[in-house]
Amino acid sequence: MAHQAVTQLTQKDYKAALQPVWCPGCGDFGVVAAIYQALAKLNLDPDRTMLVSGIGCSSRLPGYVNTYSFNAIHGRAIPIATGIKVANPELTVLAVGGDGDGFAIGTQHFVHAARRNVDITYVCMDNSIYGLTKGHVSPTTPTDEVTKTSPYGNIEAPMNPVLMALACGATFIARSFSAEVKTSVEVIAQAIEHPGFAFVHLISPCPVFRGRQQFDRVKERVRRTPEGFDFTKREQARAIAFEDPNEQITLGLIWRDQRAGYIARQQVIRGKAAAKGTPSYEGLLHSFIPDFGAVGAGR
Q1: Four-CA torsion 149, 151, 155, 156, nearest 10 degrees
Q2: Residue 75 per-residue DSSP state
Q3: In angstroms, how far is CA 26 from the centroid of its own chain?
Q4: Which of 65, 81, 236, 260 is packed most tightly, with the most Cβ within 10 A?
């Protein structure tokens, strides 16, 4: 459960002193603005909120938010976020990163966090390019796209993050576009409140290495989930996942499942173990370190 601040905070309260250094026109400006507003909407306590990132342009984001943060190595945002959440379930934990960080070197971590239904929110800022390393093909770069490493066109098929999340067992899936800040605020806030692995696919155009045309192509194709859409029906979510992005890109909540989260299941196991007299983790540590409790309290 997300912990609220004692007093009502505004988005300004979540802005760190460090100023963003993204390129002019970068979609990530829209994403961080949405995160400020989502945190304010939920009135989350900054002292009980954690943002984790990997490496990449988008992974600078936690430094711009006035919460606890951790900048991990490439592709490792999700396992670090998982460890933090398991160690301290009372924290609200978000992991952020780009398509390269999340769906190249970090693919296996996404898969297993989704199937375990770890209680974290993962926001992937997808610009379909490796921007930090100056414009080479990423896992979501469209086929035939000309980039620094594909001067005659990309020969690979792009990954489908929404379909992958659905297949791997994510219990919350939503999509937004960095220019649609209102929609982004809505789905990020819902994702944070969701008790399980929540994935937000956030399309965030790169004006430098994908050009203005990427923004224009996305803008002219986006639409909201249709009236009457049931996000609890897997077949309806699958239909959106299989959409041709050259035709339309549906934004909003796509899928939600009520399967018990990892932390909730872990608490059940702990209860069963305690009922049988199995020593707790803390008890085991105390047997090796007699003053473990005092050391922990003194930190």
Answers
A1: 30
A2: T
A3: 18
A4: 81
Geometric angle at alpha carbon 75, from 40 and 66, rounded to 5°: 25
Cα distance between residue 280 and residue 284, in whole Å: 6
CA distances from 88 to 2, 84, 120, 294 (A): 12, 6, 12, 18
Q: CA torsion, points 143, 247, 182, 125, in degrees to nearest 10?
A: -10
pLDDT in tens, 220-244: 999 999 989 999 999 999 999 999 9
**4 secondary structure, DSSP code:** B
Give the pairing type, strands 172-177 and 249-256: antiparallel
Helix (H) or strand (E) holding 55: none
- Which sign does the torsion angle of CA 131, 134, 138, 140 carry? positive
How many residues are there in the chain?
Answer: 299
Nearest to 101 by CA among 138, 155, 136, 50: 138
**Range list of β-strands (E), the chain:** 49-53, 68-71, 92-98, 121-126, 172-177, 198-203, 222-224, 249-256
For residue range 72-111, what is the model confidence (pLDDT) as tens digits? Answer: 999 999 999 999 999 999 999 999 999 999 999 999 999 9
Instruction: Specify the DSSP class assigned to residue 279.
Output: P
pLDDT of residue 298: 44
Please name which of 240, 260, 242 lies closest in space to residue 250, comparing C-alpha atoms.
240
DSSP letter, residue 159: P
The token duo for 43 is 């009135």
CA 202 – CA 31 distance, rounded (Å): 8
Is residue 52 within 8 A of residue 72, CB to CB? The reply is yes
CA atoms within 13 A on the CB side of 283: 7
Domains recognised in the chain with CATH numbers: 11-259 (3.40.50.970), 267-297 (no CATH)
